[in-house]
Write a structure and sequence with these properties.
disordered C terminus, 220 residues, 11 helices, mainly alpha
């Protein structure tokens, strides 16, 4: 039995799609869709960079450097964000799938298919931050979708603020989806599955928070 991966259907109708994903023996198009979503991630990160999102350090350098150098820095920033988007897409697809594969008896392609269902959620969050940054001047740590705003009132520790800024309703949505799919396709204890899902997401948030904490202007 074959099951062509329908990303949005798997995202919105997980109860129905769980049975198709569990019973299918082959998954045509998984690798093709994986490449497409990684490229789309790079495109969305580039779109965000084009409108200056997360480029506050460039604005501070504007008055201190020649115009030609500033334009070159903007171009490098755009290229860097595209590469970051490609890395983000690959990480969010391959890393959780590899982690679940190592701890369960499920086929890797089956787990990769589950991660494909989470990509629209993560990229939607990235897209929604663009108008918030353009029209309201909000940065990622001030996103109304995350705990970053609350963290700014509780602590002055930048690393903790960046960490909680990654804990958003979209990330919770991905945790819920991963938990539902993996639980339905394995006989392992649901509590253990939940712990596994939270653990890999926690590792990713810690890593992303660390990268955000290392300010770009301190690297240049």
């Amino acid at each position: 039995m074959e099951n062509r991966i329908e990303v949005f259907r798997g995202l919105l109708h997980y109860r129905y799609y769980t049975y198709k994903l569990r019973d299918a023996e082959r998954f045509p198009g998984v690798w093709k869709k994986t490449i497409v979503w990684i490229l789309l991630s790079g495109l969305i990160f580039g779109f965000s960079a084009y409108y200056g999102v997360d480029s506050e350090y460039l604005s501070r350098k504007l008055a201190a450097i020649p115009r030609a150098e500033y334009e070159m820095t903007k171009l490098l920033f755009l290229a860097g964000q595209i590469l970051q988007g490609l890395f983000f897409g690959a990480t969010m697809l391959f890393l959780p799938a590899l982690f679940f594969w190592a701890l369960t008896d499920l086929e890797y392609k089956r787990l990769l298919a589950i991660q494909l269902f989470t990509m629209p959620i993560l990229l939607l969050e990235k897209l929604l931050l663009v108008p918030l940054a353009i029209y309201l001047g909000l940065t990622k740590i001030s996103s109304p979708f995350s705990l970053g705003i609350i963290a700014q009132y509780i602590t002055g520790n930048d690393w903790l603020i960046y960490f909680f800024a990654n804990l958003s309703i979209f990330k919770i949505w991905t945790i819920f989806l991963e938990y539902k799919y993996v639980t339905a396709m394995t006989d392992k204890n649901p509590k253990l599955i939940l712990l596994m899902v939270i653990a890999i997401q926690l590792v990713i948030w810690l890593f992303v928070a660390l990268l955000s904490f290392i300010r770009m202007e301190n690297i240049l």
